[in-house]
Amino acid sequence: MGPWRCLLLLPLLAMGLRAQQQQLMEYVERRLRLLEERISQWHDQSSRYSTELRDFKNQVLGMLEAAEKEREAMRSEAESAAVRVDRLEREVDYLETQNPAPPCVEVDEMLMEKQVATAKQRKNEKYTKLTDCSDTISSVRAMKILKRFGSTLGLWTKDAAGNSEKIYVFDGTANDMVYVFPRMREFTLFSATRKAARIKLPYPWVGTGHLVYDGHLYYIRQQGSFQVIKFNLANKTVVDSSVFPAEEQIPVFGLSPFTYIEVAADEEGLWAIYATKEDEKNICLAKLDPTSLDIEQMWDTPCPRENAEAAFVVCGALHVVYNTRLPSRSRIQCVFDVSGTLAPEDASLVYFPKRYGSHSSMKYSPQERQIYAWDDGYQVIYRMEMKKKLEV
Known about the structure:
CATH class of the largest domain: Mainly Beta
Coiled coil: 17-98
Pfam family, one: OLF
Largest sheet: 4 strands, antiparallel
Structural class: alpha+beta
Signal peptide: 1-19
Domain Olfactomedin-like: 132-388
CATH topology of the largest domain: Neuraminidase
Order of helices and strands: HHEEEEHEEEEEEEEEEEEEEEE
Strand content: 35-45%
Keywords: Coiled coil, Developmental protein, Disulfide bond, Glycoprotein, Secreted, Signal
Shape: rod-shaped
Helix content: 25-40%
């Protein structure tokens, strides 16, 4: 090819190159525009997402703040409710100690008949002693009149089996309130009851045959038949109760018509002194189980009810105190020993010093070997002189 032909092709080649460059530039511009559009869309979406995230965060923070406030309010309400519940529990506990809920006491006729039958099977049998106590009363060593308190009839005593110094006072022959003095000093020095605690019993008591023994109060309730109620003095609740399995009971003492059952304690444990129409002339005796209140054994004694004013048990021997309706000296005139160690004719005839009227109650303390007596409204202590039964 000649030189002139090459010169003719150069402009054509230049035009082709410019066309290709133009197309490349147009392609690059289109790609850049698309990329810019996508970047713009991404920016818009990112901005929208950031706004939504910020709004959601603010919403969540508001909800958390509201929840925290509600939690604080609920915590305050819970604390207030806990305080009210605690106060209510204390009030309920206080009310229960003042007025304990009476238990449901149902009389099982078959069980009562079984108890009566079991006790009658062992009736008048010789008693097997639980201790080696062989003492009996020889005389009244001393007498101390403490004060005059309450009505003419009543009962005062200490715990016959414990070491407590508390004095328990039953004023009258029918009530539901027991006065408790912390010590003998408070009972002696103060005539009013302001120094005494008060125990309101769930059932009213009758008579003056009650007993405080080993932290429990054994008292008599009458609801048709007579019941022995075992009352815990510590928590102020009824532990147990038992219908006394004796039919047609009558007052046990001729001079104390208000007492149908006398619960007594000695070195051997718990006893019940009573009387029935079956043998209305004489006094009956029964050995009680202090835990279950079951009657373990029964005896018909030769001690008459007529002119009897009180009775107590010492070393397994029943001592009945007699008087006359006219002012005179009280005396132990009948002694019945369940073990048969002491014959009635060998017992000492013990006289009590001159007193004001008639004893409405006499409670023997086996630990102190003295008697707490209520004599026409006067509270008297008799200190007893003891001797061995074989020496009498």
